[in-house]
Every structure is written in C-alpha cells, then in structure tokens.
Amino acid sequence: MSKIKSGNPAVSLIRPIQDKVRFGLVFQSIRYRLMRCGLEFTPYYLMQEGINLVTKIPVIHGRQDEYSLEFLGAEDMNIVALNSGLSEEKPHYFLKTGQKCLGLKHMGEIAAYLWINLNEIDFASLKIPLKNNEAYLLEMCTIDSYKGKNLAPYLRYKSYEILKEMGREVLYSVSVCFNTPTIRCKKKLNAKELKLLLYIELFHKYRRGFTYTISFGLR
C-alpha cells in the first residue's frame, strides 16, 4: 500500500480526524455539529478546584524561567480571539464586564491563557452568583505551538495561588463531559465533581436543564 504524501489534500482531511481521536474529542466534535443544526445536548460537570486539593505541583516541560504570568489587557485580545474562535469584539466585551484573563507568556509571547469570572457562574442553565471568597474558572487555551509542555495544569495551579492572594480560595469550573483533555487536566490537580448536569436546547426554542446528582460542598 502506498503512503499518503504530506502534501496530498487527503492529509488535510485525515489529520483533524486523527487529532480528535488522539485527544479524545470525537464526541465533543459531534456535539458541535449538532449545535449547528439547532440541537444542543450538553452533559457537564460543575467542579470544585483549588490549591488545597493539589497533591502534586505541576511543572513545565522545558525551562520554567523562560515563562512569566500576567493578566492580559486589551492589547492582547487579538491573539486571544484568533486562538479561541471568538469574534474580535467578544474578548474585549469579557474584559469590560469584569472578567479577567490570566496569561502565561514565553519570552513575551502568549503561550496559554485562562479566563476568570469573579462575579458569577454562568453556563447553560446554571447561574450562581459568587461570594467574595469564590471565583469561576472559565475557558483555558494553550496555543498550538506550545501544546505538550504541560502548560495548562501549570497555569491553572498558578491561578489558584494568585486567586488565594486575592482572597478567592473557593474555586469552581464547568467541564463538558465530552471534553476529555480539559477533564484530564483538572484531574491532575485533584479537582472534584460537585454536580452532573444536562442542558438540552432544540432549535433555539425549547430549553431545559436537569441535575442528576446531589451536590457536595457547594454552599
């Protein structure tokens, strides 16, 4: 059997599929396709995180002294939009509404970032106002050229430290059950599931949320 050359158009079709299988994102991809058709089926966990749950501090694969942490500003949002699939205006809107974007930079270049909401948990049918000692960790993204360096667990742990200094020790996040890489990253830091929920939306008209487990530790 002849090998498919890297320049062959077939490679461009096969590689994304291989990546989804490799990273455990097959069902997540199917979910996105259904959403485009007006059918949303989203099972997800409400999780608790925090520095007190961590038993092993993650380290970067490579020279850690080449990386720095900072909250990103408006001048960084074009890179954030480009790598998250958002419109150019959306990240700026997040900043204006009080969300914070913690960035991990390598020699001045954004390598990964994490959005943080200090006001509320807002995902699908789940909406919970936060107390002064709480925070909600939202979307995290590692730039493609920096994947495989263990940056996501490292940045997440550093966010725990920074938020603790701000008086925010009780941390929550949401993970779609099909998003295997994200759940794997959180499990490295001993994150705990508090609730299993399901959100269904049909053709932007019928919306319903369900809770399937009793919550532990949430208020």
Shape: globular
Uncertain segments are: 10-24, 214-219
CATH class type of the largest domain: Alpha Beta
Q: What's the CATH architecture of the largest domain?
A: 3-Layer(aba) Sandwich
How many individual β-strands? 10
Task: Give a written overview of the molecule.
- By secondary structure, the chain is α+β, with helices and mostly antiparallel strands.
- The protein has two domains: 1-37, no CATH class; 41-211, Gcn5-related N-acetyltransferase (GNAT) (Aminopeptidase).
- The protein is built from six helices and ten strands; from the N terminus they run ααββααβββββαβαββ.
- The protein has helices at residues 9-22, 26-36, 77-84, 89-96, 151-165, 180-187, and strands at residues 39-49, 67-71, 100-106, 109-117, 120-123, 126-129, 134-142, 170-176, 192-202, 206-211.
- The strands form two sheets. It has an eight-stranded mixed sheet, with helices on both faces. A two-stranded antiparallel ribbon has the order 5-6.
- A hairpin with a 2-residue loop joins strand 3 and strand 4.
- Residues 10-24 and 214-219 have low confidence and may be disordered.
Task: Compose a concise summary of this entry.
This protein has about 220 residues and is an alpha+beta fold. It is built from 6 helices and 10 strands.
Helix-strand layout with pairing:
Blueprint: H1 9-22, H2 26-36, E1 39-49, E2 67-71, H3 77-84, H4 89-96, E3 100-106, E4 109-117, E5 120-123, E6 126-129, E7 134-142, H5 151-165, E8 170-176, H6 180-187, E9 192-202, E10 206-211
Parallel strand pairs: 7-8
Antiparallel strand pairs: 1-8, 1-9, 2-3, 3-4, 4-7, 5-6, 9-10
Helix pairs in contact: 3-4
